[in-house]
Structures are given as C-alpha cells and as structure tokens.
Amino acid sequence: MGSSSEGSAPDPYTPGNGSTAYRVKHYDLTLDYKLASNRLSGRAVLTMAAHRELHQLELDLSGLRTTKVTSDTVRVRSFKERAGKLVVAFRDPVPDDAELRLDIRYEGNPAPISGIWGDVGWEELTDGVLVAGQPTGAPSWFPCNDHPSGKASYRFTVTTDAGYRAVCNGVLVSRIAKSSRTTWVYEQSEPMPTYLATVQIGRYDLVALNDPAQPAVHLPRHAGGGRERGRPVPQYAAVPAALAHAAKASLGRHHEMMTAFEECFGPYPFPQYLLVVADDELEIPLEAQTLSIIGRNHLDEGWEAQRLIAHELAHQWFGNAVTTARWQDIWLHEGFACYAEWLWSEASGATTAEAHARSTHQRLAGEPQDLVIGDPGAADMFDDRVYKRGALALHALRTAVGDDAFFGLLRSWTAEHRFGSVTTPDFLAFVTRTLPGTDAEALLGPWLHTGALPAP
Questions:
Q1: CATH classification of the domain holding 241
Q2: Does residue 387 carry a catalytic annotation?
Q3: pTM
Q4: Parallel/antiparallel/unpaired status of strands 273-278 and 420-422
Q5: 21, 25, 49, 136: which sits with the fewest CB atoms below 10 Å from its CB?
Q6: Is 334 annotated as a binding residue?
Q7: Which listed residue (106, 312, 339, 341) is catalytic?
C-alpha cells in the first residue's frame, strides 16, 4: 500500500499537517454555503505533482465528510478519512514527477480546529463568516497539503445568500446574482500557502481607500497579473454600511501607509489590497494574501489600532509574498511586520523607530529571557517576544549599517525572493552577501539564537 513516508509531515511544529510526498500546484475550489444552517457543500479540484512514486497520498481535511473522489489522470482505488486526513489510494502506482489531478466532493458543517494556538479556521460570525487559517486552519474548509512552503495558485467560486458579499484572496473576476443566491469568483494567480487562503462573508459594501470622497466602487474585472507600473495600488475596504463612516475616518491615511511601505520594502507585490471590517469585535486582526481582516473595535484613529493595521499591511511583503518555509522562522514574518509598525510611526510624524526600540528593549529586559526567537517552539511561536525581539534585531541591523544600506537590503530581499519560501539562514546569508563587510551571524545571531536579550 505504499511506504509510511508518503504521509510524513515536513514541519515539526505542525506534525499532524502536510506531506513531503507531493505538492499541489493549483487549487480550484467551488463552495456553496448556506448561512442559516452553516452548511457547506464543496468541490476541490487539485492539480498536483508527485515527489516520489505514490501508491496513496494524504490530504489534510478536518470535520467535513468526503462523498466522492475521482480523477482524469490516475485510477482511484479507494478513499477514507482518518484522524484529520483524507487518504486516497491508487490502483496503479503514480510515478515520481508525474502530474495528477483529484476531484474531491465534500460536505458538512465547518467549524474551527482546536489546538495549542486556540481555535483556527472557519468561524461563524454574528452575521457572516470569517476564516483565520494560521497556522493549521485551512483543513477546516478544504482538502489541502497544509504546510507554509506549499505555495499554489487558486480559483475560488463561492455561492452564498443574496445580500451578502463573499471575499476571497486575489481579484474578483465575476459576480452572478440570482433571486436568492449570488456566486462570486476570484482568481489568486500569485502562489500562496494554504494557511493564507480565506473566505470572508458578510453584508459588506465596498469603498475605495485611495480616494476617500468616492463612496463605492466595483473591483476591476481581471484575473490578476499585477498592476500597471507606476500606478497607485488599488485599495478598498469591505465594510458593513453602518460602519462606513468610521472606516473612512480610521483608514483615512491608509494610502499614505501604502506609499511609505513601498518606499521601504519595494513595490506592493499584488494587484490590489482589501481590508475587510467584520461587524463583530475581534481579539486581533489577521492577514491573508491580498487582504486583511479587522474587527469593528479596530476602527480607531489612535496608535493602537493604527499599528495593527500597519502590521497586517506589512505582511503582504513579509509573510505573503516572501514566506517562511518552516514555522520555526516565523520571526521573518512577525519581526518584520512589527518593525513596520515603528516605521509607519516614524513616517507619519509620530514616535521614531529609535524611541520605540528603546522603550521596547526596556520592557523586554524585565521579562523572562528564555525564548530563542529563531526557534521558539510550536507553543511559543506567536509569543509577543518573537515579534518585538525580531523588530529589535532589525533595528540593530539598521543602526549598524545605516538607512541607505538597510532599506536597500529590504527592497532587494523582497525582490529576489518574491513569491518564494525562505529560512533564517537564507536571510543571514543574504545580509552578508548584500552588505560586504557585514557579518550577519555576529550581528544578528545574539538576537535570534540565544535566550538572553542583547544590550541595545
């Protein structure tokens, strides 16, 4: 029946998810969702490439029932569900490097997946749906190879109740309204890991953030491929009608934030950006590729709300376009996004990054110094010290090499690794190579690889 390695998990932080036996190149997801009953009927067509000879393969799928698995490229012998896995066996071995497609029908009442990070995945709101996939929530709503290094393109076709907007990653390419149901189709052309795939459903109106005087817009009908060089990034907010005024006020400087980050990090990597404002209070905002989700409680012009909005926007460069290949290196997402908060504070005329660094260092010096942020362990990978100490590491690098070299390095990093997967050793090697005379390990190693907090 094939070797046990066909289902082996490549990341020790998420040992129950992912497989090294194959990769998914494209997900074509067709979802029909009824809000009142929280009932999901799904079809997932996965285009895959085998990484070894396969007698069977395992997909991550949790809490939903598979009803049918077919293929036009291989002969499916059987399928069964086992401990959060969909196991598909083949009548004939699939050769190494072969391309195969699986057409999977499934259904059920999607629910969050509980784990050491709390509940993640598909979540019902008061009047709608939120999907928060990081790090292992994707299997709550579609069959997948759930690992951060597994990047693929996507097509989402979502049918739901009339009067509700479905928002997915990428660009809206069609909207078909019938009497009681509306179908929304999105294309996510740029490669994306499963944890960033999302569906948001709510009674949302769309407003433009580039021109606050414009009350409503329709997303451009094209299938991605970037935007015309030199044009501003199209920026929108999907908001409940009652929150439109508060959203315009809170997000009034968002276009300035985007401009500042493009200057620091290089061109925005996707065709557009969308902020979804849920009509619920959320504990924390979250990002997905091409969009972020905030709660109604984050619509505030004060620093605490604005830093969170900046943090999620920065993830479009650090986390989405450039993604860690393994969860132990999550500081490459969170440390960079945290430092972006300080950069926006500085660019907007408020507190400087240097002042933020000093106060943060003083606070961290009074906390336990037992966390190695370059490998914090699964339970602590979202610890605030990973975020803040990662930002301090970047500030130490900036201080050592100067602004021109530092921001040139960031722009080169995002350009060279755009839509790729990286590790901490990759970043350290890049720093040493890009900045001759800089020993990245000597400069950054104490911040990343030791528990004790280095001196400022």
A1: 3.30.2010.30
A2: yes
A3: 0.94
A4: unpaired
A5: 49
A6: yes
A7: 312
